Amino acid sequence: MEYLFSPRSVAVIGASTNPAKVGYNIVANLRAAAYPGVIYPINPKSDEVQGIRAYPSVTAVEGNIDLALVSIPAHLTLKAVEECGKKGVKHLVVITSGFSEVGNIEEEQKIVEVARSYGMRILGPNVFGIYSASKSMDATFGPGGILPGNVAIVTQSGALGIAMIGKTAVESLGLSALVSVGNKSDIDEADLLEYLVEDPLTHVIMLYMEGVKNGARLVETLKRVTRRKHVVVIKSGRSKRGAMAAASHTGSLAGADGVFDDVMRQCGVLRAESVQEAFNWVRFLASAPLPDGEASVIVTNGGGIGVLATDASEKYGVELYNDQQVLKKTFSEVMPDFGSSKNPVDLTGQASADDYAKSLAAVLEQPDMHSAIALYCETGMFDTDQFAKILRDSHASFSKSKPIVFSLFGGGRVEAVIRELRREGIPIFGDVYEAVASLGALQQSWRHLSSSEEQIEAPDIDVPAVRRILSKAAAEDRGFLLAHEAAELADVLGLPMPQSSVARNLDEAVEMAQDIGYPVVMKVVSKDIVHKSDAGGVALDLVNDKELIDAYQAIVRSCRAYKPNAVIEGVEIAEMVRPGVETIVGARQDPSFGPTVMFGLGGIYVEVMKDVVFRAAPIGLQTAYEMIADVRSYPLLLGVRGEARKDIDTVATMITKLSHLISLCPEITDIEINPLAVYDHGDGAKAVDVRVLFTGSKEVE
Ligand code: ACO
Is the CB of 97 inside a 6 Å radius of any atom of ligand 1? Predict the structure, then answer.
């Protein structure tokens, strides 16, 4: 990767003397950014491009080429790549469009194969180039003028990425790198993250994503990277329509948004709603030190803006320092009689610049106050120009030890101060919500960093026994387990199931019900009927022999009417489960992230309430407890209105078991326990219904 970000020499294949061409612009940007390495324009028709000697092909170049940028039409690209291989080029950036994104998958694969055969790596195709501050290299066809700094941007959308060049410049946001991944034929986000985490210039990484390919590797990489650097992600396709647009735009399927959101949080990644929000966060994260704790102090010269900041703090998870005695003592000296030392510390509109500076200094000195939110409303009492100096000085004194965010509200002079300080790299905002949200992002990242890294202990799962159960079903060409097979699998996993057995006729059914003890449940057993309730194949709460006999006859009749050719193998007689808190535990092979596990409020309302959370599997108990606490209905498990706390420990154990099963057995595509009835603490839980889907017989065998 070093050769991609810091090449000693760059060839531009398709370098042109025509300013309307992409190849012209790349050479112009390399020169304008004062790239210190050697530039080799490649063009069969010109001897010189922009005053630099040009070559008819890379093989005609005498010196070594670390990086070649390809900017010639798609049908000419393969040949050029082959020549690069022969020349010993190390990295390729293929700008050219017209490959897998428009269905031309074969040509793209050929390019990858040729590149691999020569040991070359490829960024793209379908990218805008690459910017790297470590080598003053603007090898893009963007508008130029990128400010060097400490934010690395990796984007899946080329157009958005190239537009970010101008936007970041206007916003005075300095970049360490700007890369688009395009079709990800070889290099993907995970590869780039591996490099950027080691890059000393990069303090924070911003990702723009549309779809996830090879999500399991991305998860593994992000988990490591976020332990060292902040990562902010914007993923489009949040809405159903957006997801469809993203899928058609990039040719890769956008993953379900809920899964993406939860998995990113699991990895310690901060998810921003919009590009603007991401810019705000990275601006602050790139320069702010990590706090020592969560307690923040709002210092303001305006009451209203202070209240807004308090609301924003609640919204973005920023805790406010609350020891009233200490607050009073700390700020009494600078506080006018009619001011308030409660947090927000309101110095009032009468505050002088000096009072303001002293207040911020007091926050810095107080060890239990971990960060500051400095707010300012323009007044006539305050010399705004003098204010710029106070902010600059405060930022400098805070910069080593405590985070500080600024929000200034006022007219033209205030706006000028904001622009001036931003240019100096000071995180300063016009809107109070933007300022507090940025501090909230830092706090979230800090919480993740302060939490211990989970050591995942694998539970003892008898995988061969699981596979034997699947094989039996596969032999009958079934991709799902019947109820008694699912019960067998639950037994292997040690999941508590209601007592049950399969009766082949009415006499056996009566005998079994008496053995189990009334009340019982009866369910049809037929490989031809998957949705038993829809077929009238389920009868609940049967309290005696008579009800059981009636139910048996009714079930057989309904199922015959529902599917006349269905082979009915018998009925399952099961213990009637007593009511508990109905939860759902599931695991599946997610199209983006691979094995994932889910927990939530279960029962028949699961689809309506959608109170579920996901994690990439496998997970340990620590993450399982976090999942349980993450659902909105968590209070039901803690016990409401004097109820006892429920058996959360059993639920956590079951979540971890399913997460390991789905990881160990990739042939299982879905396993779901719904409902899992959870009882009072110590009384366990019962898996009322277990459904298992798996892929065809070949994989199982
Ligand atoms: N080696 C070197 N140079 C060559 C070769 C070769 N084998 N063959 C042709 N050339 C020269 C051409 O003569 C031409 O130079 P000239 O202007 O001096 O005549 C130059 O290379 C370019 O070739 P053209 O045929 O003129 O191609 P053009 O520049 O019009 O288009 C491009 C090439 C830009 C790669 C185009 O095919 C393409 O894919 N455009 C889309 C790029 C894109 O958008 N990428 C995604 C970025 S992200 C986003 O969405 C913004």
Answer: yes
pTM above 0.90, yes or no: no
Q: Which residues of 247-280 are buried (b: 16+ CB within 10 A; e: fewer)?
A: eebbbbbbbbbebbbbbbbbbbbbbbeebebbbb
* Minimum-distance ligand 1 atom for the alpha carbon of 128: 47
Ligand 1 centroid to 97 CA: how many Å?
A: 10
Tokens matching residue 6: 């810091």
First to last CA, the chain: 41
Instruction: Check residue 248 and give its pLDDT.
Output: 39
| CB neighbour class for 102 (10 Å; exposed up to 12, middle 13-18, buried from 19) | exposed
Using pLDDT thresholds of 50, 70 and 90, give the confidence band for residue 256: low
Give the contacts of 370 (CB within 8 A, at least 6 positions apart).
Answer: 291, 292, 293, 294, 295, 296, 321, 402, 403
* Contact between residue 19 and residue 10 where contact means Cβ atoms under 8 Å apart: no
How many whole angstroms separate alpha carbon 6 and alpha carbon 9?
9
How confident is the model at residue 186, as a pLDDT? 95
Distance 326 CA to ligand 1 centre (A): 67
User: Which residue out of 10, 17, 21, 210 has the highest number of ligand 1 atoms within 8 Å of its CB and is therefore the one to mutate?
Assistant: 21
Other CB atoms within 10 Å distance of the CB of residue 56: 13
Tell me the one-letter amino acid at 76. L
For ligand 1, whether the C-beta of 46 sits within 6 Å is: yes
Ligand 1 atom nearest the C-alpha of 73 is 37
pLDDT tens across 39-85, in order?
999 999 999 999 999 999 999 999 999 999 999 999 999 999 999 99
Element (H, E) at 587: strand 581-590
pLDDT computed for residue 239 by the predictor: 57
128 lines ligand 1 (CB under 6 A): yes
- Ligand 1 atom with the smallest distance to the CA of 162 is 51
Q: In sequence order, what are the beta bridge partners of 501?
A: 573
Q: Determine if ligand 1 sits within 6 Å of the CB of residue 367.
A: no
- Mean pLDDT over each residue of the chain, to the nearest integer: 91
